[in-house]
Amino acid sequence: MTQESSIDKRHVSAESFDLYLESRVPVILPIQGNPEVFIFVEPAKSELGLRVRTGSDSETPETGLRNVVTRSASRDGLANLEVVVTASTLFRDAYPVLCSMADRIQIGGLSPAQALRATLDKMSSLLQAPDSMSREHEVGLFGELLFLGGLINALGAKDAVRAWRGGQAEEHDFGLPSLDVEVKTTTGERRSHWIESLTQLVPTRHRPLWLVSTQLTTAGTGHGRTLAALVETVRTRLDSDADRAGFELALTDSGWREDGGARLVTRWTPRTESTAFRVAGAFPRLCPEALRENGVPLDRIPDVRYRVDLEGLENPDEMPDLLATAILFEGQI
Q1: Predicted structure pTM score
Q2: In this structure, what DSSP letter does residue 308 have?
Q3: Interatomic CA distance for residues 254 and 173, integer angstroms
Q4: CB 227 within 8 A of CB 264
Q5: Phi and psi at residue 235, in whole multiples of 5°?
Q6: pLDDT tens digits, residue range 139-192?
Q7: In 10 A of CB 50, how many CB atoms?
Q8: What string of DSSP letters covers 199-255?
Q9: Closest by CA position to 232, among listed 164, 159, 163, 149
Q10: Residue 184 main-chain phi, psi, to 5 deg
């Protein structure tokens, strides 16, 4: 099957797209399906983009990429999400990627934000060098290290490093003297997080469980820190050999590889001030006990991954001083 025959059913062929680029005139290419999706080219602005109709409160996710940006745009009084490639030298390679995103929306039924993430994740998987860290893993580890840096301020290096469970299966991220902490980090504009299992938000015995919610965004040159820089910042605050050894072990268990750090060039900075929620009462979550009570056969559901939206959620419990102190560390990043 030729490239042209494989793409012409829903999309303009690569050869035809090249002709549009060579014409140097603005182009809008509708893609048949629901919701409405368009590919557009604006030569004067050096932009190739995908435009899709969205709700007024839809998420505008960050890409974390230098030459691919997202933005909200109003067209004919309706809200749209635009995913825009800003380097003209990439237009030919980026076009089939935008077509793939359109297919995920119109055929796969994903939301625009989900389709963007899925498309970028696939591309990332193809381009990753061995032992490279995924963007999601990078962001998650950055959030844990931010909290660890704050715990060093609050507890001292020895107790903070001991509290970090760094990648240990079936354990919460931090085990503190009187409570457990799960750290969740997102790059989205809304405070929403992926929960990886039915047990991730289940307290251990009678110990209170708190979820620390962190939002990051990409930073400009000279601002924020890369993951490798944050790792080094925490290292420099550890005085004893025992603390450093414990930190390095937990860091390795969390998936960090020193030789891969140089490839993680994105500089991150807090988008908003982090906050913490007590995982109890009406806190939104799925857990085995509640499902069993409703007769759900859990042995028939081997894997669960779901998303919780904490944007604007009121927290009936006052944040412990320990957590409040630890969160202040992110202001130094």
Answers
A1: 0.63
A2: E
A3: 10
A4: yes
A5: -55, -45
A6: 999 999 999 999 999 999 999 999 999 877 667 999 998 999 999 999 999 999
A7: 29
A8: STTS-STT--EEEEEEEEEE--TTSSB-HHHHHHHHHTT--SHHHHHHHHHHHHHTT
A9: 149
A10: -125, 135
